[in-house]
Amino acid sequence: MRQTLSFIPTLRETPADAEVKSHQLLLRAGFIRQNTSGIYSFLPLGKRVLHKVEKIIREEMEAINSVEVFMPALQQAELWQETGRWYSYGDELMRLKDRNDREFALGATHEEIITSLLRDEIKSYKKLPLTLYQIQSKFRDEKRPRFGLLRGREFLMKDAYSFHATTESLDKTYDDMMQAYSNIFSRLGLNFRAVIADSGAIGGKDNHEFMVLSEIGEDTIAYSDNSSYAANIEMAAVNMEYPKSDEQARPVEKVSTPDQKTIAQVADFLETTPENCIKTLVFKADDELIVVLSRGDHEVNDVKVKHISGAKLVDMATPEDVRELLSCDIGSIGPVGLPEGTRVFADNAVKSIVNGVTGANEDGVHLKNVTPDEDFTVEAYGDLRFVKEGDASPDGEGTIQFAKGIEVGHIFKLGTTYSEPMKATFLNDQGKAMPYIMGCYGIGVSRIVAAVAEQFQDDSGFTWPTAVAPYEIHVVPVNVKDDVQRETGEEIYEQLKAQGFEVLLDDRKERAGVKFADADLIGLPLRITVGKRAAEGILEVKIRETNETVEWHKDEMQDKVREFFKK
C-alpha cells in the first residue's frame, strides 16, 4: 500500500484525554479515532491489526471444530425475560424500543439468542456436541469508559457457545477451549496467565479468565510465588487456620466511643488491635438486607458473600438502609442484638475472636468483650474475605503475590443455567427430554489490540510483533524528488509485494525527519530506508523491535528479508 493512498493521520501531540500509553499511541499513530466516549472508529492500520487478530482466533477455533455463525446485535426483550436477565443484568444493558413500543436490547452477550436458535433446531443427542462462534460488536453502557479500547461501550468480541448431552462432553470442550485460548495468546506474543474467576452476570460455575499482565490492568491477580496457582482476587480462596485464644469470655461491656467510626480509630481509642475487632457490614442481597462479619484487618469480598448467601445480586446497603434496619450510622453497627430474623454470615477468622470489640448499633457506642456464638448467632461461617499478599497459597505451595492484569478472555461452564429456564431440550439416548448442557467462551478482540499495543511499544512508538503488525515492512525513500531514491524505493516495493510480503511504501513528499518519526510511531517490524547511498545499491535497514540498524545491498535484500521473516 502506498502511504499517499491510505488514511494514516498521525499526530505529533498526545491527546489530553488519553490516559494510558496504548491509547495515546493508537491515536497518535492513526490506528483509531474516538467518535464519542467509549466508541471508536478503526482506521486502515487499526483494521488490519483487527483482521490479523481475528484470523488467528478463527484458525484456533476451527482447529477444535468450532463453526462460525453471525447473530443479530438487536435482541428482543422476551428472550432476556425468559432467563430473568432483563431485570438482573443491570444498567450496562442498553435497552431501547421500536416504533411499536416493543422492547429490545443491544447485545451485550448472546446466550439467550444462541439458546433460542438451538432449541428450535437441535432435538436429538445424535447432533451433539456442537460448538458455534461469532465475531461481532457488543454493546455495554459502561459507567466510566476509559483507557481507550480497554473499556468501551461498543467493542468487538469473539463469543462461542457449546451444547452437550453430558457433563463429560462439556469438560472435553472446555479443556479444548482452554488450550485454544492459550494458543491464541501465545501466538500473539502476550504475557498472560489463566486465572480462576467469577462468572458475574453470565452465570454458571467453573470458569477461567485469561489475563495479560500489565501495570495498567484493572483486575488484580493473586498468584502463588511457588506454583501455577492463579486467580482473580475476587475468587482467590483463603485457606488458613485461625487459632482461637484460650482466654475466658468476659461479660459484654458497653463503652462510649464519641466520633470513633473506623476500625483504626476504635482500636486505637480502646487500646486494642484491628485483629481483635469485628467489622460489621450490611449488604443488600437481592431484596434482603443481610449482615456480614469479618476481622477488623480484613476486607469483605462481595463475590464470596453472593455465593454464601445464594443471592443473584449483592451490593453494599445504603446509609438509609442501615438506619432503617438498625437505627444507627454505618460506623456504629454490630452483630449483637440484631432484629429477629436477620441473616448473619461471618468470615472464618471471626470464629477465633474472644472478647472482641464491635459496634453497639448505637451512635458513638461500641461493645467490648464480644465473643462469637456466645453473644450473637451466625448462620454460616465461610471464606468471605479478600486474600492478602503474604497469605498462604490455597494449593499449599508458596505464598500469595499480586499482579495487575488486563482481561482478554473468559471461559465458562454454564451447565443448564440458560437451557432450563428457556426450555431448550433434546432427547437423550433413552428418549427422555433433557436440557442442553452448555459452555460459553469469550475473547475481547478489540481489547486484544489494546493489550498488544500496551505490551509492544517503546518511547518512540509501537514495536508490533509480526503476527499482528498492520504491514510487515515499511519502505521509506528519504527524498522522493530524487529519481534514484524514488525509483529504487518503487522497485523494492514491487519486488517485496511480488514475494508475498505486506509492504507500506512511504511515497509522501515529506521531510526525512517526519518520515522517520512516523515510521517509528507506526512500528512495523522492518524498515528499509532508501537514502543517499541508493546509487551504490546500499539500503539502511532498521529492526524495529531492537532498533538495531544494519546495511544491506539491494541485490541481497530479498534473501535477507525472507531470512528475517523465516519465509
Automatic annotation (TrEMBL):
Matching entries from Pfam families are given as: HGTP_anticodon, tRNA-synt_2b, tRNA_edit
Q: Which UniProt keywords apply?
A: Aminoacyl-tRNA synthetase, ATP-binding, Cytoplasm, Ligase, Nucleotide-binding, Protein biosynthesis
Q: Which reaction does it catalyse?
A: tRNA(Pro) + L-proline + ATP = L-prolyl-tRNA(Pro) + AMP + diphosphate
GO cellular component terms attached to this protein's record: cytosol
Q: Where does the UniProt annotation locate this protein? A: Cytoplasm
User: Know anything about its domains from the record?
Assistant: Consists of three domains: the N-terminal catalytic domain, the editing domain and the C-terminal anticodon-binding domain.
Residue limits of the Aminoacyl-transfer RNA synthetases class-II family profile domain?
Answer: 38-465
Supply the enzyme class, top level: ligase
Known function: Catalyzes the attachment of proline to tRNA(Pro) in a two-step reaction: proline is first activated by ATP to form Pro-AMP and then transferred to the acceptor end of tRNA(Pro). As ProRS can inadvertently accommodate and process non-cognate amino acids such as alanine and cysteine, to avoid such errors it has two additional distinct editing activities against alanine. One activity is designated as 'pretransfer' editing and involves the tRNA(Pro)-independent hydrolysis of activated Ala-AMP.
Biological process terms in GO annotation = prolyl-tRNA aminoacylation
One example GO MF annotation = ATP binding
Family note: Belongs to the class-II aminoacyl-tRNA synthetase family. ProS type 1 subfamily.
In the Enzyme Commission scheme, what number(s) does this protein have?
A: 6.1.1.15
Task: Please give the PROSITE patterns that the UniProt record associates with this protein.
Answer: AA_TRNA_LIGASE_II
The subunit structure is:
Homodimer.
Its name, as the record gives it, is: Proline--tRNA ligase
Show the taxonomic lineage.
Bacteria, Bacillati, Bacillota, Bacilli, Bacillales
